[in-house]
Structures are given as structure tokens and as C-alpha cells.
């Protein structure tokens, strides 16, 4: 540990209750900053679960996924994560801000993944933001003395979803649907899941996009055929985020004076597609609401593209659309697998250290990225958007149209540092920044400017909610 870290440790102490409990059991520990937590296999992920009988504390390594189905079968109980509001109430009672992996703190049964005690030492969340506890294997065995040891979690290394061809995505989705439905006689995937056609408004707008002679008048005519879309465009232009001088009098005014042709085309397409599927009523605790995440992503990705060297920049309109639609597979996932969407949400809550698309891969054999990308191809949307959705969690993607996928990944990684989105923080490889011609400082400056406009963006989000 560095001298600086050591000095910080001396000025930081555990809550009295936790320190007292550790002393009572004779457990030695080191209080360390999280950046010194050590290998992920030695880090403990704690989850407080419950059913009608009470609570259960689950402890697994952070390189594993907690499988609620397997654990429930093992214990003969239908366990789900304690809701966040109740968890915060429990933690505040102990003057904690985070859930520590300490069985002695709870009057609950504890079940521990066997793989943990195969490690030379363990690192546990301390209950203090930014700090962890490191204990030896012997002390870990003392701490877990009353815990039930079992194998009920899944190594994340077995869940990696490698880059695949569109044909493989279609096959994966088809197999997943067949596994969860009785509609096995139908041959065509789109018939099996009854995906609606591309909305007429979006179809007309996409035609305008590829028409070099189309202008503001033609776009305004199409937008005005959909009264709710027209109102949306006008209110967007009048929002504090754009701070347009004077009153916005018409759709033409909104396009020509404030938003511009490209932005309105992509906003209109995104809103039209958003109306196709209802927002699911269920959602994981602590996840950013769908449209809020979409708007933040689109705003950051627009800023990143403009910060890139001119010769590397992608088409700004498609880039914005890719950001707006990046999580569209989430809506389709809820539409295709409604009985299982609740199960996915609960697993996301129980595994905040795992990216949601890996959880979906484990539970249903296909991810939101695959589903969203497949639908973009089915609807004949631009290939750039389909690739961006499919490869958005692959920072090493270098294939065709890689710049769109790379920018979506970078945007999600930057926002994850500010707890916008869902899942753990995403690393930003230097090679990714080099491909985009950006430095980490430039990228952080972009996301900083967007977050400074947070209040204005929230107004945009409220105006962007589809009328489901």
C-alpha cells in the first residue's frame, strides 16, 4: 500500500458496530481503499435475499453470477433480492451506506459459494463507500463458520458472448424463443414472436434520410402527419437544453432555427420506434429509466463525435440514432419474454457487479444486444445502427462500421462512472481511445458538459416519454 493510502487508512475507521463484532470473533483485517481490493476472484459480492420466511445473506466471488434459480432449488425457498428501499432502511439502522459481506451483522442464515474459501485471502465490502476489508483465509473460515457452503453461482468466464454473425444471432434468438414458448411449429422467427412492422412514420422519415433532395419542408410535412410527434419536436426545440431565442412557432421553425434537419430525422425515428413497444412495468432497482438513459447516451455520443478528429468522425445523424436506440433490445426483450422478464430483473438486482447482457445470456441464451440488432436488420434500418447495437459491449471490435459501436461503448463506460445505466463500471482500453482519436481527458470533458446540463436534459426526458 502506498504512503498516501496508508495515511488515508489511519484517518478512516469502520463503524463502531462492525469493528466490535470483528473484535468479538477475533478476526483480523486490513481496511483498504477499493483500488487495492486485489483479484476479482478474491472479492466478495454480498446480496440480501428474502421470501415469506425471512432473509438470507448470499456471498459469492465477484467473478461469478448469483443464480437465484439454483440457490432457490438448493434451499427449497423462492428467494428474491430485498427491494432497495427496504435494504436502505436496514443499512441506515447500522449507519451503513453499502451492504457489507459480514454474516455476523445479520440475524439471517448465510449461504456462501464454496469457491470463496479456496482463495488465500478475501476482500469484503466494508459498508463504507470506497473502502474494503481484507482478511486471511483462516479469518474467512472463522467469519463463515455458521454459513452453509455450496456451489450455486456461475463463473462469468462461462458467460462471455463472443462476437457473432447476424445469422448466429437469428439462430440464438430463435432457439431462445423456442425454449420459452409452445409456438414451435412456425418456421419464421418474425411470425413466431409477431414483431410489428416498422412504423409508417419512421418508414417515411428513413426514406427522406436517403433522399439527397429532401429538405426542411419535406421533413416538416412528414412530422406534421403525426400530431404527437409534431408536438414533441416543437417542445424539444423550446426546451432549456437548446435555449433557443424567442418562441418556437412551428415544426419548420423548430427544424430550421434550432434543431436542424439531421437531429430531427433521428429524434423522429427514435420516438416512432419507441412507440412500437411499451415500457415494461417492472424494472431492476437502481437502474436508470429507459428514456433517461437513451437521452443521456445520445447527448454524450453526439459530443464525443464532434470532439473526434474530422477525418475519423462518423455520420453524426446515425451516430446520434445509435445512441438513442442502443438499449432498444431491452424493450423487445420484455415484449418477447414477458413471463421471464421479471426473473431477469431480479437477477440484475442480485448481481450489480455483472453486466445485464451476460445475465440474459445465462438465463435465456440470447442478449438484448442481439435482439436489438436483429430487429434493426429486420426493419431494414442502417447497418451502422445494427452493428452499433450488436457490438456495444465489445471495446475491441474493429470490424466494419466499428466507429459507431466503439462510440456507444465509450459513452456507456463514461456514464457508468457516474452511475447512469445499469451494471458495473466498464473499463476504457487505451486502444479504444486511439481508434477514435480521443484522449480520456477529452472524453471526460464531453460527459462533464452533458452532466452540467442535467436539469435541462431531464426536461427533455419528460418531453420524450412516448404515450404508451
UniProtKB/TrEMBL annotation:
InterPro entries: HDOD, RNase_Y/CdgJ, UCP036888_HDGYP-like, YbaK/aa-tRNA-synt-asso_dom_sf
PROSITE patterns linked: HDOD
Gene3D superfamilies documented for this protein: Hypothetical protein af1432, YbaK/aminoacyl-tRNA synthetase-associated domain
Transmembrane stretches, start-end: 316-337
Name under which the protein is recorded: HDOD domain-containing protein
Residue intervals of the HDOD domain: 195-395
Keywords recorded for this protein, A-Z: Membrane, Transmembrane, Transmembrane helix
Organism: Pseudomonas neustonica
Highest rank taxon of the organism: Bacteria
Lineage: Bacteria, Pseudomonadati, Pseudomonadota, Gammaproteobacteria, Pseudomonadales
Keyword Transmembrane helix: yes
Amino acid at each position: 500500500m502506498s504512503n498516501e493510502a496508508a495515511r488515508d487508512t489511519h484517518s478512516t475507521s469502520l463503524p463502531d458496530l462492525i469493528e466490535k463484532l470483528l473484535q468479538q470473533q477475533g478476526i483480523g483485517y486490513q481496511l483498504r481503499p477499493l483500488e487495492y481490493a486485489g483479484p476479482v476472484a478474491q472479492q466478495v459480492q454480498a446480496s440480501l435475499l428474502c421470501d415469506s420466511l425471512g432473509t438470507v445473506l448470499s456471498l459469492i466471488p465477484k467473478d461469478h453470477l448469483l443464480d437465484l434459480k439454483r440457490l432457490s432449488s438448493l434451499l427449497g425457498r423462492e428467494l428474491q433480492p430485498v427491494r432497495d428501499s427496504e435494504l436502505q432502511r436496514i443499512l441506515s439502522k447500522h449507519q451503513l451506506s453499502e451492504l457489507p459481506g459480514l454474516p455476523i451483522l445479520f440475524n439471517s442464515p448465510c449461504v456462501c459459494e464454496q469457491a470463496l474459501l479456496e482463495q488465500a485471502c478475501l476482500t469484503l465490502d466494508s459498508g463504507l463507500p470506497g473502502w474494503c476489508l481484507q482478511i486471511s483465509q483462516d479469518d474467512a473460515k472463522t467469519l463463515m463458520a455458521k454459513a452453509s457452503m455450496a456451489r450455486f453461482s456461475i463463473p462469468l468466464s462461462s458467460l462471455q458472448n463472443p462476437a457473432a454473425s447476424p445469422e448466429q444471432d437469428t439462430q440464438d434468438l430463435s432457439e431462445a424463443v423456442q425454449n420459452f414458448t409452445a409456438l414451435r411449429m412456425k418456421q419464421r422467427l418474425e411470425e413466431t414472436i409477431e414483431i410489428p412492422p416498422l412504423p409508417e412514420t419512421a418508414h417515411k422519415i428513413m426514406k427522406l434520410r436517403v433522399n439527397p433532395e429532401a429538405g426542411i419542408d419535406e421533413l416538416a410535412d412528414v412530422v406534421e402527419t403525426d400530431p404527437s410527434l409534431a408536438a414533441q419536436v416543437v417542445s424539444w426545440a423550446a426546451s432549456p437544453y437548446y435555449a433557443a431565442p424567442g418562441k418556437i412557432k412551428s415544426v419548420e421553425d423548430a427544424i430550421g432555427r434550432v434543431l436542424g434537419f439531421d437531429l430531427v430525422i433521428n429524434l423522429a425515428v427514435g420516438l416512432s420506434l419507441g412507440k412500437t413497444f411499451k415500457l415494461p412495468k417492472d424494472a431492476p432497482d437502481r437502474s436508470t429509466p429507459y428514456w433517461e438513459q437513451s437521452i443521456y447516451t445520445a447527448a454524450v455520443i453526439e459530443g464525443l463525435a464532434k470532439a473526434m478528429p474530422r477525418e475519423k468522425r462518423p455520420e453524426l445523424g446515425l451516430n446520434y440514432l445509435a445512441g438513442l436506440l442502443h438499449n432498444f433490445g431491452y424493450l423487445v426483450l420484455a415484449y418477447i419474454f414477458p413471463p421471464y422478464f421479471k426473473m431477469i430483473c431480479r437477477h440484475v438486482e442480485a448481481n450489480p457487479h455483472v453486466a445485464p447482457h451476460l445475465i440474459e445470456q445465462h438465463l435465456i441464451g440470447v442478449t438484448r444486444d442481439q435482439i436489438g440488432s436483429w430487429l434493426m436488420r429486420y426493419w431494414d434500418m442502417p447497418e451502422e445502427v445494427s452493428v452499433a447495437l450488436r457490438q456495444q459491449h465489445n471495446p475491441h471490435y474493429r470490424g466494419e462500421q466499428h466507429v459507431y459501436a466503439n462510440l456507444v461503448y465509450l459513452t456507456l463506460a463514461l456514464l457508468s462512472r457516474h452511475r447512469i445505466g445499469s451494471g458495473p463500471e466498464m473499463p476504457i482500453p487505451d486502444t479504444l481511445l486511439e481508434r477514435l482519436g480521443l484522449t480520456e481527458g477529452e472524453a471526460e470533458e464531453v460527459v462533464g458538459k452533458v452532466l452540467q446540463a442535467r436539469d435541462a436534459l431531464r426536461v427533455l426526458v419528460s418531453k420524450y416519454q412516448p404515450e404508451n
